[in-house]
Design goal:
This is ABHEA protein. Belongs to the AB hydrolase superfamily. ABHD14 family. With 140 residues, the chain is α/β, with parallel strands linked by helices. The protein has one domain: Alpha/Beta hydrolase fold, catalytic domain (Rossmann fold, 3-Layer(aba) Sandwich), CATH 3.40.50.1820. 41% of the residues lie in helices and 16% in strands. The chain has a 4-stranded parallel β-sheet with strand order 1-2-3-4, with helices on both faces. Helix 4 links the parallel strand 3 (83-88) and strand 4 (108-113). Helix 1 (15-29) crosses helix 2. The longest helix has 15 residues, at 15-29. The radius of gyration is 15 Å and the shape is globular.
Length: 140
């Protein structure tokens, strides 16, 4: 909501509004403890949710998300959600920048996909899915 051709969404202008939006989505879908996969621009929704409601998640998979600089190292260290940080080694901008913040998450692993750019899941789909499925298989 609020990106691309979707209509502007005033209630989603704040992090609290985006957290409430994701809460409603999870509730309507009947999801109890999903794994939140967050590539790029979706970080504006996922990161506030992870900071406020990480207890609702079984896992978190940020893929070079935006908004990582909006939080402090201390805030990241409070999140106990198992996290798989994924990015392509050719993503020398957002991938590396996001890693600087996200590596403060205490329960994280990092997978860098060789030869992949910002949309590493499109550039190297087999490697991406192998890493994602391996992470999912380790969750309880």
């Amino acid at each position: 909501p609020g990106y691309g051709d979707s209509p502007p969404a005033g209630t989603l202008a704040t992090p609290q509004g985006r957290v409430a939006f994701l809460e409603r989505v999870l509730e309507r879908l009947g999801m109890r403890r999903p794994v939140l996969v967050s590539p790029s621009m979706s970080g504006r929704f996922a990161l506030p949710f992870v900071m406020a409601r990480s207890d609702r998640l079984a896992g978190f998979v940020p893929i070079a998300p935006v908004g990582t600089r909006d939080y402090t190292a201390a805030q990241y260290r409070q999140v106990q959600t198992p996290t798989l940080i994924l990015y392509g080694d050719n993503d020398t901008g957002l991938g590396h920048q996001a890693l600087q913040s996200l590596q403060q998450l205490p329960r994280h692993r990092v997978v860098v996909l060789p030869g992949a750019g910002h949309a590493c899941y499109l550039d190297k789909p087999e490697d991406f899915h192998r890493a994602l499925l391996g992470f999912l298989g380790q969750l309880q």
